[in-house]
Specification:
By secondary structure, the protein is mainly alpha-helical. It is 70% helix and 0% strand.
């Protein structure tokens, strides 16, 4: 959910606060428009500074993107690790992870698209930094889904690989849906996911057989 555009103004603002204003504006710009279409001039205008000053603080557009990506990626990684570490891997782990992601992104939902930005120029520092976070999150997903399968009595590595892909796609789809529905709070989304998981579990136990 994007924050309304406004000029923050920087006269008399301490350097660390001005830097934070720039990061917040840039996170919104990258998250709402994507790296390729994002404009440094728009970021500067939003904060009420010159584009030259923005370059002085962060360097290139790619440098600014990485500065925005790092806190987003770290926060989500910490959130997922914490959710997975509570009571070990249990049937409640997926819901804990989703709730943690909703809470971590609330108030800055477009940050999800900073992390998962498909318009990054290949081979650059931005793409490498994002790929490192994707790999770390995928590794956590692999550990979690394999743990769930073990509790269900399955050690088939292909089952684990399929479930990891299903889970990561599910998370991305759910978060994208949530971003489009700003009226949904983290709590309401967690309850919604719990209901949907219950239905999915019921279907898996008693699937509809074709005749």
């Amino acid at each position: 959910m994007a924050t309304p555009r406004s000029k923050a103004g920087t006269k008399g603002v301490p350097r660390h606060l001005r830097r934070q204003q720039m990061l917040e504006a840039a996170t919104e710009e990258f998250g709402s428009r994507g790296y390729a279409a994002a404009s440094l001039a728009a970021v500067a205008e939003r904060v009420g500074v010159t584009k030259t000053l923005l370059h002085q603080y962060f360097g290139t557009k790619e440098d600014l993107y990485v500065a925005c990506l790092t806190p987003v990626g770290n926060r989500l990684l910490d959130t997922i690790r914490t959710a997975m570490g509570e009571d070990g891997t249990t049937p409640d782990t997926p819901l804990r992870v989703l709730r943690g992601i909703f809470v971590a992104l609330e108030g800055r939902r477009e940050a999800w698209f900073v992390l998962y930005d498909r318009s990054l120029p290949p081979g650059g520092e931005a793409a490498r930094a994002a790929a490192a976070y994707w790999a770390a999150i995928d590794a956590l997903a692999a550990d979690g889904t394999a743990g769930l399968l073990r509790t269900a009595g399955s050690t088939d590595p292909l089952d684990a690989d399929v479930l990891r892909h299903v889970w990561t796609d599910l998370v991305g789809t759910v978060v994208r849906w949530w971003v489009k529905h700003p009226e949904e709070t983290p709590e309401s989304m967690t309850r919604r996911c719990a209901r949907l998981f219950t239905v999915a579990a019921a279907l898996s136990v008693d699937p509809v057989s074709p005749h």
